[in-house]
Every structure is written in C-alpha cells, then in structure tokens.
Amino acid sequence: MDYILSLLEIERGDGDQWYAKCPAHADNKASLSVTRRDDNRGKSRVYLDCKAGCEFGKIIYELEVSTRQMFEPIDPEKKAAPSRAQRTERSAKPEKKRAASRGKEIARYVYHGPKGEYRYAQIRFEPKDFRTEPSGVPDGDRVPYRLPQLLKGIAEGCRVWIVEGEKDVHALEALGEVATCNSGGGDNWRSRYGYGRWFKDAREIHVVRDRDETGTKFVNAVTADLLQAGVPSDRIRAWQSRTEQDHHDVSDHLGAGWTLDPSKKNPDTTGLVPFDWDAAAQQERDQRIAGRVAELRDEEEARARHQTQLAASMVPPTAVPKRRTELVRRSHEYLIKKCIPKRGTGELFGASGSYKTFVLIDAMMHIAGGLEDWHGFRVRRGRVLYIAAEGGGGFRTRMDVWLYEHGWFAPDKAAELKALDDHVLIVDEPFPILAAHELVQRLPEGWTPDLIVYDTRSNVTAGLEENSSTDMKQVSEAMRRLSAEQDATVMTVHHTGTSEEAADRGRGSQVIKDLGDFALQAEGDQDEGLRSTVFVRKFKEGERHEFGVRLVPVHLHDEDGPLFDDDGDPVTSLAVTDEQVEPGAEPKVRMRQQRQQVTQRSADEMKEQREATNAELAYRLQRFAEENPGVGTNAAAEHFALSARRTQTVRDLAVEEGLIKIENGPNNAKKMYAL
C-alpha cells in the first residue's frame, strides 16, 4: 500500500482510503480511489478504481507495477497507513519523481470570492498539466474565474464572455472585455457548483466553445446552468472560432487576426462564427448512433462467439467420420416399435384433458416391466428416467393405480414388481433440461437410462422462450447431446395450442419436432367413456398411424383393503387398460364438429325465441330480470335474439301483467326489475 501511494499524486485521504490523480488520463480532480481491504487468506489487497472509467490494467501499466504487487501479507501489529507527512519523509525520492513528472510551473491562476478573498488556485505546468491548490475544494466554494471583475462588469452593463480556460480570459481582457471561465476545463462546468447564480443580472452573455467535442458539451452545460439560474434565453448567445482546426479556441481566433465582432465592411468574413445548435445536435445524434452501431456490432460478434462455443460444447464425443462398413444398422432398434425408437429425440404433446400423462405412464410401465405388447406394438425392455416437473406429488399415486389395475401387486408378482421398480427412476422436481450433464452425474453408479422423459417441457425450460426457434434449437441440441452420450431416447411432454389451426401440433416453435425423430399426440374423448387416441405424427422409419386406448377410474387398494386419504376420501386416479378401442377423430375435425354443434344449438335457440308467443316471452323476461336486476332493454333484446321493437312490445306486456316494473336509470335508461 505504501509503495503504491508513493507512486501517486495523492490529493486527500487517510488510513485505508485515499484519493489521487489517475496516471492513466489527464486527471485534474483526483478521480482515482485507492483502497486497501483484507481477505480471508492472510493477505490485503490494494484496489484501484478510476471514476473516469480507466481500466485497471492501464492504471498499473502507467505505474509500472504488476498485479502481484497489489497484494501484501497482513501484519497483525500494523496500524493504519502513515500520514502524508510521514509518507513524505519516508518517500522523499518518489516525491521528487512525482514533482519532476509534473513539469515546470508556467502559470498560477488565482480564484477569488465576490469580496476579493482568496479561494484557491489553478496551477498550469509545461508539458500541459493542471493542478488545483489546495485540493478537494468543496462544491460551494467554487467560483467563476475573475469573479470580482465579473460582478463589476455586470453592474456596469458590460457584455460578459464565458470561455473554456484562463488563457482565453486574459486574451479577452486584453481587449477590454469582461470574461470568465471555470476551473478544470470545459468538461468541469457543473450545475451543483452554482456558477449560474452570478450571471442573473448580466444583460448580454456570450459563450465561446473550443472546436472539439468537449466544447459542445461545454456550451450545453453552461447554457442549461444559466437557464436553470433564471437567465432569460434571449440574453445568451453561443460562438466558436472562425479558424476551423480541431481544438482551436478564442485565443487562436484572435491570434489569427480575427475580431470578436463582425466589421461593417465584411460582416460575413470577420468576427466569431455563431454556434450551430442544429448541426451540433445532429453531430451528437450521429455520434450516438455510431456508438450504438458499434455496440450492436460488438454484441453480435460476442453472440456469434458464444454460439460457436455453445455448438462446440454440444458436439457428441462419438461424432467422428466413419466408413460405410463401420456404420451400425439400427433401423430395427426400438423401445416401442413404430412409436418410440431406441435412441433419438422426440415429444408427446396434447391439450389439457387429453390424458397424455396417463398414456405416457402406460408406455413407460410396459418398457420398464418388459411387457411384450403395447396396444398392438412390440415392446423391448429398458430403464426409464422420468423428470416429473409437473404434478410430481401425485405421480406416485398414478403409478400405483396403474400397477394395481394391471395386477402387479399380486403376491406372485413380487419379484417382477421389484425388477420393474429397479428399471424406473423419478425426479419429482423441475430439473432444467440444459443441466442434463448435472442430472446424469446424480444417477446411481452403473444405472444408465434407455428412455429419459421431461414432463412438461415448459417447466424444464424456464427462462427460455418457447416461441423462439433459437431457444428451442438450443433445447433440441441439448436433448440430442444427452441422447448421444447416454445412448438413450430423450423426449419431452408438451401442450398443444388452443386454436383449431394449432390443434395437431405442439405449442410454440416446431424446432424440436422438426429436428426430432418421433412425435406422438394424445387426444382425449370423454364422450366415448374416457377414451384417448394416440396419433403417431412422426416416426422416421415408419408410416403415420393412430390407435385408441381406454381409461378407467380406479380406487387404489393395498393388502389391507381400499386406501383413503387424511380427509377420508378414497385414493383414486385413472389408468389406461389393455382394451383395444377404435381411434377417435382428428383434433381439427373434433374442434370443427364441436363448433358446428354450438352454432347449430345457438341457431335452434334463436329460432325457438322467434317462434314463441309474446305471452311466453313476457314470463321468460320476468325470469331474466329476476336473474339480472336492473337489466336494460338492449341486453334483453340481445339475450332473446329479438328485434328492438318486439322486445319493447314484450316488455310493455310484462309490465301490464305485473311481471316486471320499469325504473329510469342514468340518462333516462329503462331498467327492468322482476315483481
């Protein structure tokens, strides 16, 4: 810490917190924070933080120190950092080095208060550098340069010039003008310093910018501060040098032989040039747009690098070029023939109420239990890893109900039941699909899955957008990588869309289906006694087909009899049976038929209303008003599908018969109430 401090130009601070001028940029206001903190490994570290945004590496480069020198062992007996006097005495040689680095003092600009009292000084060195003495001037003590002369000139009605440096002030004073500036350069005019309050009574204020970006910021800051202080806008004018070289100021303008005011003979070629606010604003917009374009380009390059790295991380280790004779024929390998292959990716989707989870449990139990036939399709035994991200709490009941319905709890089935349990593992909490590597590490040693199921996809892809093909492609790649690494089938359970158009596909992006090897859809049909139709929408090595399954409600039993929950209600669920049933209609066809039925039912009701007598309608209107007190005539007309004239006739008849009464509501609207 002491060595680092000895290399810096310290302005203020004590103990473990110091402020110094940053060596990485032309610093006039001690913007570098130097802090020492202890860690839990017996060392202290020096932190360098430049408020102007200089990078840490650039700072230590300028100091000619290494990162290792930022650390030092903690001395238990060490007190606070030495005071400035102690450091000066102990580090005389580095102090001389710093003094020499400032260069030669060539000017001292003294700032006075309104009564001529000394406030502070701005010292200029050669090579060009500045320092405020004393350092750390409070905001409230800062004043414009030559303040007493400024106030005198304003009182006498003189015009006032605000420029960017003390050298320019003296150049203007040599011409008999009243001029001022702020300390620290054009980018240090701050409204919190209260400069604007000294110009309230000035009748004419001229702000002159240097020809650079800082000059534009200076004009904007000064003008905003003056307006905030109450100076009328018609008293403020902005100018710039007639010389067009970068960084030229009013001193360069005058040194080139130009005048402050245009001459009468050549008004367009003499004097200062008016500051073009529109051009400056356009330039600022262009710079902002260029900066944003650069940011977007950097973001795009970073995104491309990330995608490249992500793609590289997803390449399976077995993905190497092979000869034809080295390839393995795998067309015959399956878990459920023509439905679920032995390896690859896919999905099972369906609407709410389609019984897709019950269909999935039925398929899983056939695979894990080694049953030979699943609704007419051959089955090969395998291990199943099921991530029950939706409804994990009730999954045990659903599995037990299936086992009970299919006779697996019989005493003579104990060995087979144990073998089935050994072939199924369940994760009863959401587990992100992109964290598949972590999931594999948590599997029991020696246990490798043949089928991995994520139920549902939306619960294991939190933070990803299901309508984004980019996000879903990332999910698909993760599934394919997991499939290749485990030599298993990976599938998700998903929901369908709600519209008729989306009734036969999963909700959102279709990337997972398009890039996958199979896709199944379950469609429920309660009208046919708890039936679900399974549609094989995609199977790479087989044709599309469908088949129906029957579900039955089951009251779960154990060896002691029927089971009941804590409230005394029976423990029940649904189970898919082995009964062969005819498949139902396509989802789109079913939705169209349902819509037509609703339309026909509405048409029949409207026809009945039209054919009813006025007396019948009057009693119906009474019941309608009883259910909807204060209902209006228009609402009744819409409900009964009647014209406005006939509705009024029925209403008047109901009033005459004493069935309803009419009261006037807001805007004389007729409100009906049943009697």
From TrEMBL:
Alphabetical list of Gene3D superfamilies matching this protein: 3.40.1360.10, P-loop containing nucleotide triphosphate hydrolases
Annotated segments matching region Disordered: 73-101, 242-265
Pfam family, one: AAA_25
CDD domains in the cross-refs: TOPRIM_primases (cd01029)
Ranges annotated as biased composition (Basic and acidic residues): 75-101, 243-252
Superkingdom in the source lineage: Bacteria
Protein name: AAA family ATPase
